[in-house]
Amino acid sequence: MALGLGALQIVLEEGGRKDWFDSSFIIGSSLFAGVALVLFIHRQLWGERPFINLRLLASYNFGVASLAMAVFGAATFGLVFLVPNYLSLVQGYNAREIGISLIAYGMVQLLLAPLLPRLMRWLNAKLLVASGFAIMALGCWLGAHLSNDAAANVIIPSTVVRGIGQPLIMVALSVLAVKGLDKAQAGSASALISMLRNLGGAVGTALLTQLVSQRERFHSERIGEAVTMFDGALQQRLPRGLVDVQAPQVMQTLSLIDHSVRQQAYLMAYSDAFYLSCLALAACALASLLLRQKDG
């Protein structure tokens, strides 16, 4: 398990930098992770003394809750990784400004934490989980409307809304996951939930990072198709027309236009990442309504 998950983590973290399966290192690490995890699963399912009871995933509530927890981890950790990148790369924030912008994300969870036990007594746990996923999906939808001016005025409201939904999910979903399970399986259930949340976070971070990279290239190409040297609007922005494209003023203008195209492409790419997270969390909100109060 340690070797397999460790190798998988390396693949997810280094894949983007090494161009994924064009790298022999990534291919080798993937094969190693696959073999190790297959051996681990075989040992746990058919071994005499399994370390973790993987058969718990066949339980209805636990299986659905585990899948939802993995998606929750993917969206949460993935966006926690992407938001500072967006503020730094697109908006030009420094480390201090990024930290200040994200304080509200932690503060709202800190304020909500003492209220959760009371909410669990007042509200149906299933509705609490669905509400948490719906609130996080709303936060992602708010964050998907990015523009040149979309910095603190968009990102902070988005992170605050997601911060409200996050604690509602973590507590209530864990409670629903173990409904109907024997107390003797509590250790395995807790380990599986935690592992799937963290694994989902690693997968989500890699997926969203790769999505932003791929979509930035896609949007740059689409925007670039409309911005050509023969475009009338572009020619008007060139200080000396197209008479001497090597003139310093012309080259500087072209460089600024290229920078503007890439910035717009990045805005659209990050918006796509927020939209994908919104759809995934909205699907989990619907799936959580299928959870049973008593597992059967």
Word description of this protein:
The structure is a single chain. The chain has 296 residues and is mostly helical. It has three domains: 1-51; 57-215 and 276-296, Up-down Bundle (Growth Hormone, Chain: A), CATH 1.20.1250; 218-263, no CATH class. Helices cover 76% and strands 0% of the residues. It starts with a helix and ends in an 8-residue tail after the last helix. The relative contact order is 0.15.
Blueprint of the fold:
Blueprint (H helix, E strand, L loop, with lengths): L1 H13 L9 H23 L13 H30 L5 H18 L3 H7 L2 H19 L8 H26 L8 H41 L5 H6 L10 H41 L8
Shape: globular
Strand count: 0
**Unreliable residue runs:** none
Beta-strand residue fraction: under 5%
Helix content: over 70%
The level 1 CATH classification of the largest domain is Mainly Alpha
What's the CATH topology name of the largest domain? Growth Hormone, Chain: A
The count of domains is: 3
CATH superfamily of the largest domain: MFS general substrate transporter like domains
Main sheet: strands, sense, barrel: none
